[in-house]
Design the sequence.
């Protein structure tokens, strides 16, 4: 088992990574606030891991809420089902919520914990690759609005993140690939040597080779933990974690939540960010080709859905959270393995990226 | 104009109290974060003060959301109307929300600000006595759930609180009285000399004599600001601000939100807290009589609705936020003008209080 720490002063917390962690009740007990625990999971994960997770918390006054599965349920209405249960079961301010599932469950459970009685504790037990390497770490929680993804939420850090890598064995291939998109992201924003490692080891990772998986998760979490420690509330550098996300959110909103997986939209978005960075003269056409090749090997999309027009992209991107007082800010690369946030790009280059991406996918 | 400060380190903010402040745009401008402002108000307040408030923010890119009026609309569904508007009008992370209205508008606007894009700035412009002396100060925000009041919310401090005491001139008498209940509360929890001042000056306050109003609001806000500075997130002493509220919330939940005004329920609840404190031997029967007399002069209820049974009270109080891991904690008085939080009271005394209160009101 590996242990990392997200350093945030009195809100610091550990990330445990290893096989079989779901069978270690002693690991989680110190991170429960009081005597009450509510596990929040979904209909897909419950039959696989709920029983073992219940056994982990057997010593506590335990309740369970099972939500429907899917990004399309990540909204205020579904969130209210968690509040209903908490109040029906009379959970106090000292309760601890446990998120058992992927990014949607983690984001919603974390947001429920942020808001219930103005804030209770929670623990992340992510069961998808995407949530293990990204959304379970860093305290971003929230739900979607029909007009924009993650528009309603809070910063609320978990007490601990428990990553049992065995849970990936039941994950559909498409979701493994979606998680790999975020893994590749870490190679692009801060760590070109990790990008090169991925170019060499991508087949092992896709095949869920345990050593490759452990290394990829640990490296990804370490990168995320460092960035979050530097900038918890995304006043600055943390925004680089959104490489590909402004384009990606536009795709997700256009398609309707749940049609494209988040990681798939981010994959296409990262290619668009790379394309724009190349048009700006910051990275080479060869860099872009390497990025596309790695994503294609991972069976990920490298272009947006063909029906998305330039106008549609422009409209959807202008409501993204990265828009500050009117100016569109994007995460771009000024060399392979180094991302930064900027409003300083040629609008004509962005148009060219949007136009050519549409053509590429048609 | 008076200026107080809520001391909370980098989250410190001013409270301005005076007549005609709605006509002073220079007062608010320094507290707006960016170029966008959204005023949130309700159907009752809008015809009275919206135009002047719009003029205050004339220099900004201004939007308005008008919500229905009433505690029964303080829920996630109405909150979503604010998010709809913010997204339709493309408000960015740098927007500033302005709460123009009473406690419901302040709590909901503050919670919308806490959650929109994971947190934006807001300004409180309270227009009722109750919100001026209580809910606009201290950063408690949130909405109700059918099973409990203020069960979903956040701590989110405003950038400034602007109290224009002229707005009380349009307030219905019943709501003035409801506000006086919270004013009396400050006399009971920390300041017996203020309680005595109220005994002498209650008629002036009811008649909205400007000097009496100014003194009562300033003294109340000063008391609240001090308690909040000591304990922002209610880990300890801040709970004394909830004197009468556990009983009061049970009344409000039982009656359905909006039937009893919050201040009315708190008035009855404070009498119950006084009754229980007396049964514990901590305050005298004469103290209880003085409290009842002051509330009655203010035309406030001094007992719960007669149909509320002991069992109903017990059930509703057990979901109140002051319940920590099973034990019922109440704010009681151990002398007139001094409140504290305790679980150490005789259960039989609580039963007697609940029983006699029911009889008293029948």
Sequence:
């Amino acid at each position: 088992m590996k242990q990392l720490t997200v350093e945030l002063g009195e809100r610091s917390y550990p990330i445990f990574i290893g096989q079989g962690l779901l069978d270690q009740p002693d690991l989680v007990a110190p991170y429960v606030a009081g005597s009450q625990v509510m596990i929040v999971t979904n209909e897909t994960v419950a039959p696989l891991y709920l029983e073992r997770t219940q056994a982990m918390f057997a010593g506590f006054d335990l309740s369970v809420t099972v939500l429907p599965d899917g990004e399309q349920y990540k909204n205020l209405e579904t969130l209210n089902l968690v509040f209903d249960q908490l109040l029906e079961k009379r959970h106090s301010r000292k309760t601890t919520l446990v998120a058992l599932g992927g990014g949607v469950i983690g984001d919603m459970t974390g947001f429920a914990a942020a808001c219930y009685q103005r804030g209770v504790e929670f623990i992340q037990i992510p069961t998808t690759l995407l949530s293990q390497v990204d959304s379970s770490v860093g305290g971003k929680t929230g739900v979607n609005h029909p007009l924009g993804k993650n528009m309603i939420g809070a910063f609320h850090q978990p007490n601990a993140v428990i990553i049992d890598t065995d849970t990936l064995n039941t994950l559909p291939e498409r979701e493994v690939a979606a998680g790999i998109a975020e893994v590749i992201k870490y190679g692009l924003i801060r760590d070109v040597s990790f990008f090169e490692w991925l170019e060499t080891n991508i087949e092992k990772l896709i095949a869920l080779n345990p050593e490759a998986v452990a290394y990829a998760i640990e490296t990804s979490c370490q990168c995320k933990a460092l960035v979050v420690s530097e900038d918890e509330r995304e006043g600055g550098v943390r925004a680089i974690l959104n490489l590909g996300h402004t384009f990606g959110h536009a795709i997700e909103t256009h398609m309707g939540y749940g049609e494209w997986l988040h990681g798939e939209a981010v994959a296409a978005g990262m290619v668009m960010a790379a394309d724009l960075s190349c048009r700006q003269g910051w990275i080479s056409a060869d860099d872009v080709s390497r990025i596309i090749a790695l994503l294609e090997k991972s069976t990920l999309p490298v272009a947006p859905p063909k029906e998305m027009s330039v106008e549609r992209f422009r409209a959807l991107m202008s409501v993204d959270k990265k828009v500050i007082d009117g100016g569109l800010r994007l995460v771009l690369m000024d060399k392979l393995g180094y991302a930064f946030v900027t409003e300083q790009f040629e609008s004509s280059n962005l148009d060219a990226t949007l136009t050519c991406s549409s053509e590429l996918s048609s």
Q: What stands out?
A: Residues 328 and 343 of chain A are 6 Å apart (CA to CA).
